[in-house]
């Protein structure tokens, strides 16, 4: 069993979609521990690690828990409370990679034309325009603002190419969000979150969830679109070496387009995160 740093141990993590919890019992992994999920005699969800009862939260369509003593709540998403937004839970996808690698990939715009060709990007529009990096909430979060990228199909509801505005938010070491131009309502933004469940240092499960302004698209189509995008990413993630996240700059040389990645790695190092990190 790997040693888990206190920062990682104290975070909240999703385990499964609430709508999937139809069986009386299931088992999963979190930070090298076996986690048991079941319902008590009154039907309430309970989460156990061995004989220890863990805290339980139901939020954003997922079941959450923590192995430590959380000092912060599950990331707040005010848009989730807006009555005209659709909550779209996109399942849980296993990835043979460090959960930190999964978050970092989510922050990367440079791969859009080459991995998500003719959807999130296309040649020759490969430039990552300069954007801004800042910390917020007393250094507890990283934000990348003023991001723009040319996209042939920014969302399922998009009818043509647009220059999409992006804002990225790292809300916790294994939780990140994206705010982007909404094709159906250009004055507002769609929100896409990626919550990662680190199972072991080199294995994780990604839980994508979207908060959309889109009344027309069928639910199955929205889920399929997002899963298709993520499965393209999974091919890249599972072929990265090392599987662990290097925090030392000597292992991987960044470019100007990698400013979010550089900020994320420095932030992880400052917070003392070592789980999933290359020693």
UniProtKB/TrEMBL annotation:
<dbReference type="InterPro" id="IPR044043">
    <property type="entry name" value="VanA_C_cat"/>
</dbReference>
<dbReference type="InterPro" id="IPR050584">
    <property type="entry name" value="Cholesterol_7-desaturase"/>
</dbReference>
<feature type="domain" description="Vanillate O-demethylase oxygenase-like C-terminal catalytic">
    <location>
        <begin position="100"/>
        <end position="270"/>
    </location>
</feature>
<keyword id="KW-0560">Oxidoreductase</keyword>
<protein>
    <submittedName>
        <fullName>(2Fe-2S)-binding protein</fullName>
    </submittedName>
</protein>
<dbReference type="Pfam" id="PF19112">
    <property type="entry name" value="VanA_C"/>
</dbReference>
């Amino acid at each position: 069993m790997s040693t888990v740093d206190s920062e990682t141990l104290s975070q909240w993590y999703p385990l499964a979609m609430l709508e999937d919890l139809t069986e009386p019992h299931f088992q999963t992994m979190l930070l090298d521990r076996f986690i048991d999920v079941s319902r008590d005699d009154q039907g309430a969800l309970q989460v156990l690690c061995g004989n220890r009862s863990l805290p339980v939260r139901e939020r954003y369509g997922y079941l959450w828990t923590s192995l430590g003593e959380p000092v912060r709540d599950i990331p707040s998403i005010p848009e989730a409370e807006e009555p005209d937004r659709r909550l779209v839970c996109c399942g849980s996808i296993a990835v043979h990679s460090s959960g930190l690698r999964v978050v970092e990939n989510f922050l990367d715009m440079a791969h859009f034309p080459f991995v998500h060709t003719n959807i999130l990007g296309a040649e020759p529009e490969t430039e990552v325009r300069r954007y801004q990096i800042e910390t917020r909430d007393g250094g507890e979060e990283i934000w990348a603002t003023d991001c723009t990228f040319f996209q042939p199909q920014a969302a399922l509801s998009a009818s043509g190419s647009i220059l999409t505005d992006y804002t990225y938010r790292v809300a916790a070491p294994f939780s990140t969000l994206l705010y982007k131009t909404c094709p159906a309502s250009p004055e507002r933004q769609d929100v896409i979150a990626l919550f990662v469940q680190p199972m072991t240092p080199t294995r994780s499960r990604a839980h994508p969830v979207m908060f959309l302004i889109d009344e027309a698209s069928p639910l199955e189509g929205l889920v399929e679109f997002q899963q298709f995008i993520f499965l393209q990413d999974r091919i890249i993630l599972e072929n990265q070496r090392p599987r662990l996240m290097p925090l030392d700059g000597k292992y991987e040389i960044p470019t100007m387009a990698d400013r979010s990645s550089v900020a994320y790695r420095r932030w992880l190092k400052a917070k003392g995160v070592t789980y999933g990190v290359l020693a």
